[in-house]
Write a structure and sequence with these properties.
The chain has 289 residues and is α/β, with parallel strands linked by helices. It has a single domain, classed as Aldolase class I (TIM Barrel). It contains 11 helices and 8 strands. It has an 8-stranded mixed sheet with strand order 1-2-3-4-5-6-7-8. Strand 2 (60-63), helix 4 and strand 3 (104-109) form a beta-alpha-beta unit.
Length: 289
């Protein structure tokens, strides 16, 4: 496995500092999540935008429990005991969406390789419950790769979300180090399948600062555009702990603008690229734009 050289004296730059937020809406979101025993990727992944999103009354729901069956080296989601699926989860998420008055709901999950269908049916149940309880809502789902099983993926695609999102996360050379249980070409195949339905927008996301080159990123832009991706997010990787993959580079905000331009030049319709951008950050605004 390739070993990367970590620059000495690398210091987190000032543009990555986040202001604390804690208004009434923030507390309301926390209260609703606690009442219905719901998980969010905002909390489990220790997202730097959590305060901002909660204060605006939004959250990204994390279904199928807080623990993951995979051990990606960039992710803060834990890998403890795997919980059985909660049959009340779809109804509880639908109720939370209603109480928060969401017009755009984002649903993601941990990876559940222990389940026969990878959790595809649970995704379908959650989408159905939201649609049954709230009209005029757009739904975005961010899914794992379902081990490349087309049958399971089709269960999810047949729910016809407005946006299907699956993150490639990084360049193929770094997969062995960063996400060893995933496969770059498998992820491209998933994106292509979603695009070929012609029924939904297709989205993906990348982190930078893991040791990739600009040329490698540009190749990924081309690959995902050919797979049918219309929406792309690009954000700075922040190591959750010393036990995770190290940050190799902090990109300057101007570099994110250059990356966005490069991705758009490849034909990607909408690129949201900035240091603190994450897959579901301001997702509604990107979709509406």
């Amino acid at each position: 496995m390739e070993k990367l050289s970590v620059p000495s004296g690398l210091v987190k730059p000032p543009w990555l500092k986040v202001k604390a937020c804690g208004n009434g809406k923030y507390l309301e979101v926390q209260s609703i999540l606690k009442k219905y025993k719901l998980n969010t990727v905002c909390q489990e992944a220790n997202c730097p935008n959590r305060g901002d999103c909660f204060s605006r009354g939004t959250a990204t729901f994390l279904i199928m429990g807080p623990n993951c069956t995979r051990h990606c080296q960039f992710c803060n989601v834990t890998h403890g005991d795997i919980a059985s699926l909660d049959e009340n989860e779809p109804a509880h998420i639908a109720r939370a969406v209603e109480l928060l008055g969401l017009r755009h709901a984002v649903i993601t999950s941990v990876t559940r390789d222990d389940l026969a269908d990878g959790g595809a049916l649970q995704f379908a149940k959650v989408v159905a419950a939201i649609r049954a309880s709230r009209e005029n809502i757009t739904i975005e789902i961010l899914t794992p790769d379902f081990m490349g099983c087309h049958k399971d993926l089709n269960v999810v695609l047949n729910t016809n979300p407005d946006i299907f999102n699956h993150n490639v996360e990084t360049v193929p050379r770094l997969y062995a180090m960063v996400r060893p249980q995933a496969n770059y070409h498998r992820s491209l195949d998933i994106l292509k399948m979603a695009a070929e339905t012609g029924r939904m927008a297709v989205k993906s996301g990348l982190m930078v600062g893991l040791g990739e080159s600009i040329a490698e990123l540009e190749q990924v832009f081309q690959d995902i555009q050919r797979a049918g991706v219309e929406y792309l997010t690009i954000g700075q990787y922040l190591a959750p702990s010393k036990n995770h993959h190290p940050v190799i580079k902090y990109y300057h905000p101007e570099e994110f603008k250059h990356l966005a331009a490069a991705a758009e030049n490849c034909g990607i319709k909408s690129v949201f690229s900035a240091p603190l951008v994450r897959s579901s950050y301001h997702a509604q605004e990107q979709f509406q734009s």
